[in-house]
């Protein structure tokens, strides 16, 4: 997608374009000054529509109007922003996402947006949200489809009309970085949506190598002999039942800024979770090709990092394996030894994510991290607890949690904290090993987090359970049915603002 930033006229009525997109509030009484010329030239079209309540400006309401050569744009596409008093940046994403889909469904190939100016919102924030909304909403997963020409999306470019010349440079940088981030999200969505039989551990490892090759990121792949040598009993046990080779992906980004923190980000990379010997029921098992969504989010994050170059050192760890069942498979009742040396009684082979994450958490220690964040489609019970609008957050450090909360509010990939109190730890005690891998019927997402905490050494740590957020059952304004790419925007928002967010965290702690 080509994004052009235009300042020449700053008069939207003079822009030659297929469609001019305009956002309007629900309670618009007076046409905004920037649009008065546009309104006049069209015979007060916009004010008529508003006065007659043919267009109300309700959030995500759209109306496409031909202009019959009265002004340069061939059409106007009005989009509602909802009530001005409840305005948020996410409503911009939604409204422009919805409007972009209208453009796509009409098979128009280009359009122009004249962003409004909103009190308390910088033009940069507005532009960032518009670009995200447009690019994320136009995503379509077509890798496996034989499409006829007329079924293909033709949107190739759009222009942003910026009135204030002095902010041009800033707006360009903002649009570029928003595009980088949106494309990283779409990359993550693609690999999550792919067949489990195609997006194997080896495939993910190759993707990691590709990302690293194009930049100064270092990539190391540990294969089965390496895992054996190092003693990664968690990932090796889970992979026993599968013909696919497990891979442990390591990505390392170093900032040129001296004395910067090191953050380790870990993603669950189960490329298909059948449940193993504790086989899952058939219904919805297809979704388990997405059980590598955490790992895919790490790959997407690194793809963006390679362009954005944040001022913090970042280590990415992705344990990748299938969870399958054959004669060699891990059995319920088996006792395994993880990298840390701790032994685990495997009560349920379907609680495999925590076994591979345990090894990754232990491995993270070698980088002396200032923070470790893991992201995983870990438990069905997190979906029961929080539904699909928030990821579960667990952690041992208030400053880190506050940083993540702040970042999540900005990008609107929301998180909600759940407790990991001592009482919950009691539930995963084992009589014959150091710990067992399930904690019974209650509080499943919490006992899973408690399990992970047993492998956390003395570093600040947060676990994000994305079981409810990795997948969307239906289209929403800027997320299409299927993989959401959750985690990418959150991690980038966090890492790009690592220092600033730390001050916020420190302040709230006191
Ligand atoms: N990958 C699943 C969790 C999951 C379920 C993710 C639904 C997304 C949607 C995980 O490996 C799993 O199977 N967890 C079990 C744990 C149980 C056996 C203790 C679960 O949540 O049922
Ligand atoms: Mn499972
Ligand atoms: Zn799983």
Describe the structure.
The protein has 510 residues and is α/β, with parallel strands linked by helices. It contains 16 helices and 20 strands. Strands 7, 8, 9, 10, 11, 14, 15, 16 and 18 form a 9-stranded mixed beta sheet that branches. Helix 12 (398-411) links the parallel strand 15 and strand 16. The longest helix has 26 residues, at 168-193. The chain is elongated. The protein binds ligand BES, manganese (II) ion (MN) and zinc ion. Manganese (II) ion binds at residues 273, 275, 323, 350, 352. Zinc ion is lined by residues 270, 273, 291, 352-353.
Q: Return the CATH class of the largest domain.
A: Alpha Beta
Strand content: 15-25%
Radius of gyration: 25 Å
Task: Please tell me the CATH architecture of the largest domain by its name.
Answer: 3-Layer(aba) Sandwich
Q: What is the CA–CA distance across the termini?
A: 46 Å
Number of spatially distinct domains: 2
Condensed summary:
The chain is of the alpha/beta class and 510 residues long.
Descriptive terms for the model:
Aminopeptidase, binds ligand BES, six-stranded mixed beta sheet, 16 helices, 510 residues, 2 domains, binds zinc ion, Leucine Aminopeptidase, subunit E, domain 1, nine-stranded mixed beta sheet, alpha/beta, elongated, binds manganese (II) ion
Summarize the topology.
Blueprint: E1 2-6, E2 19-24, H1 36-41, H2 45-51, E3 62-66, E4 75-80, H3 89-105, E5 110-113, H4 123-137, E6 157-161, H5 168-193, H6 201-213, E7 218-222, H7 224-230, H8 233-239, E8 247-253, E9 262-267, E10 269-273, H9 293-308, E11 313-323, E12 335-337, E13 343-345, H10 353-364, E14 371-376, H11 380-386, E15 391-395, H12 398-411, E16 415-417, H13 422-425, E17 435-436, H14 444-453, E18 461-465, E19 471-472, E20 482-483, H15 488-496, H16 498-509
Parallel strand pairs: 1-6, 2-4, 2-5, 5-6, 9-11, 9-14, 10-11, 13-17, 14-18, 15-16
Antiparallel strand pairs: 3-4, 7-8, 8-11, 12-13, 15-18, 19-20
Helix pairs in contact: 3-4, 4-5, 5-9, 6-9, 8-10, 9-15, 10-14, 12-15, 12-16
